[in-house]
Amino acid sequence: MKTISKVLILLTWFWQMAGVMGKRSLSATSLVTCMDNSQISPTYFNVTFNPDDRSLKYSIDLTTEINAKVEAFVQVYAYGFLIIEKNVDMCSLGWKQFCPIYPGTMQVESIEYISEEYVKEIPGIAYTVPDIDAVVKVIVKDQSDGKQLSCMQASFTNGKTVEQTGAKWATAVIAGLGLLIAAVLSTFGNSTAATNISANSVSLFLYFQSVVVVSMQNVERVPPIASAWAENLAWSMGLIRVKFMQEIFRWYVQSTGGSPTLYFTGTTSQILVQRALNHLRDVHEFASNNRIVNYAKRSLDFSLQSNSNLIVLRGIKRIGYNSHIEPTSIVATGFTFFVFFGYLLVIILIFTKQILDLLIRFKKINPNRLSHFRSSFRLILKGSLLRYLYIGFTQLVILSLWEFTQNDSPALIVLAVILLILVLGVVVYSYWRVVKLASLSIKEYNNPAAVLYGDSKVLNKYGFCYTMFQAEKYWFGIVLIGYNLLKAIFIGLCQYSGKVSALVIFILDLAYTIYLIIQAPYLNKPTNILNYLISVVVTVNSFLFLFFSDLFGQPAPVSSIMGWVFFILNAAFSFCLLMMIIAFITFILISKNPDARFAPARDDRTSFQRMSSVKHRSYNNKQDNQGANELLALGLAAQDHSNNWESEMYKLNNISSSSNDQKNHLTPSLEQEKFEVNEINSSENSNDTGQQPQTIGSKLKGKLSRGLSFKAGKGEKGTPTDKNTKNSKITRISDTLLDDNQDNYADEEKDVVNTKPRSFPKDNSATPINQHYRHDSNISAGGFSSYSNNQPTNTNDIL
């Protein structure tokens, strides 16, 4: 108890020190009119209040038509609630500039000290709550007759915000680390661990994108706390500010026929001159965020729009401006970082490949290490780029479509067209190939997993489309990409109608969530539950934005409170997702068998995969591990088929044990089998009549073939179907585990999948063991099973 008390005291002391060291202040950088025909028109406003010394430093530039002594009626709102209401005589304050007010232009920069009476009325929480939603409304009246002359409104901030650079880096690094770990594991084969962490990392990344996408809607007002949290995740849409790059983008837009905005480059003197001349197109942005819009419906019934003295930014422009990116540079920034990270991905993969080759050449590592990665490098590279395009699909579509409505410059329009065609073409083609291959697999084997998972080249290249789903629901990726495409269309093209986009996005999110729960398409139950939660949170976000769009005309406190709901919900959920990814990464790094940490997929994909786990990576070396391959195939067959599996194991065990004394002949190579078949053929040709006594050669032949018979199509013992055949028969299940260099459903040279189905010869002479037919070794597609059905593997029947 004493230790706990000391810790609490220490934390309290740190909290107090943080409050002391953090300078308390309230500041405002925007002042707008809140009535028609206002006789005071502010053009520049910057006010900072320090409660410690009660100083009020202000710099004001305004135009007035008033010629009288005035008084101000001040109202202070916090989260839409009226907390302070007071009449202030401007002459009693001693501010000579405002007592009286004369027509003309007024430029004032001064410091005043506020009475302690007024300072005590400000609650202390106003200085500590991040992204405070506070606004001050000032109604100016004629002191003589009480006539309202002007109305002005300013939003305040205390300098504390949930938008933190550390939060941006933490979310980006953890999400990227999850994708990196999944990529590393995939080099050992598409194991359960790699598939699970890849699916969860992609889901996390898409969730981050969905938070930014919903915040890109051009709604009437987004509460400050909600807007600030969305800025923490803007990096997921490529909105990353680099100062020198912004200068390049501004130059590029101007040099290619555009007119770049200059909201971040104007100085105070330039702004004052331009505003005095009423040339305000390219001036400093006074409404730096959307906290200036419609705060208290019961008192402020208006909607701010851009005018000669004010530029109001909403939607994508607001997200970009809060990231300190000029509106005309948003598209260029998103495109540039997408291409940059794509090049970085390629460079890392090529560099890794070259390093491995050098280490093998200098005999620093075993040549059999990472052989799957090296032998399938081209397909892994292409598959990685396709997955990268899939992740950036929403970003590219939104920015490209939005650029069509902005026309920042002709060059950016051309880039938008090229990237839009690229991402749509590649993604649509990939899903079309997956559907076609799955249909072929169902037609030939009554199971889509036979080709989708049995052919390693198909899996490496197009696996991003379906590996996160169950094998029989490979098509759900089309639903997901179509859902993201519809959202991107409405976000990119409905920037001038926030209510329409908010309603459509909510309907899409709700429909997708319901359909997702009905289908339960992901590879296992935990992954399904995770995606249920993500989809529910995304739907709640879109529901909250219905209120932010002012679709229901609700009072201002409703939107302000829902802003906090948005922040708490998404911050807590993001924290849980990040902790989950960290836990997965930890399990993989410290576990000798990472696959054991994850629930297996609810299908029979492992029965068709050449390497189903990281722990089986040593089986890639065929020459040294034929016996191990025998046992691996035996286990896979038993796992895939629960009927009569025990008798099958005993059969294969008896066959293997019959030659334990001849280890070298336990699993003869294909060349040996060809020799045996040729020897059988020659023996049959030389013995046309009757059964001849066995010679020493025939006994040796029988020993090598382990007593297995080769039957012809007519069922006659020892008679081959075709005497001129060049292909040997596979006599063991392990022979279906072919090397990646052998022929399969993907043409390595052209790197395209054959559209014409291969005809697998049905040989009745093949020895069946529980209906596992042995086909020709040169056409075995990565270990297909002719018996597998669409039902999930029953793991309870395994030894």
TrEMBL record:
Any single Gene Ontology cellular-component annotation: membrane
Biased composition (Acidic residues): 737-750
Pfam families in the cross-refs: TRP, TRP_N
Residue ranges of the region described as Disordered: 682-799
Alphabetical UniProt keywords: Membrane, Signal, Transmembrane, Transmembrane helix
Record keyword Signal present: yes
Chain ranges passing through the membrane: 330-351, 385-405, 411-432, 474-493, 499-518, 530-549, 561-590
ML-like domain boundaries: 24-163
Compartments reported by the entry: Membrane
Biological process annotations from GO: fungal-type cell wall biogenesis; transmembrane transport
KW Transmembrane helix (keyword) present: yes
Signal peptide: 1-22
Membrane topology term: Multi-pass membrane protein
Biased composition regions of type Basic and acidic residues, renumbered to the chain: 713-725
Bias (Polar residues): 688-697, 778-799
Family: Belongs to the transient receptor potential (TRP) ion channel family.
PANTHER family listed in its UniProt record: FLAVIN CARRIER PROTEIN 1-RELATED, INTEGRAL MEMBRANE PROTEIN (AFU_ORTHOLOGUE AFUA_7G01610)
Protein name (Swiss-Prot/TrEMBL): ML-like domain-containing protein
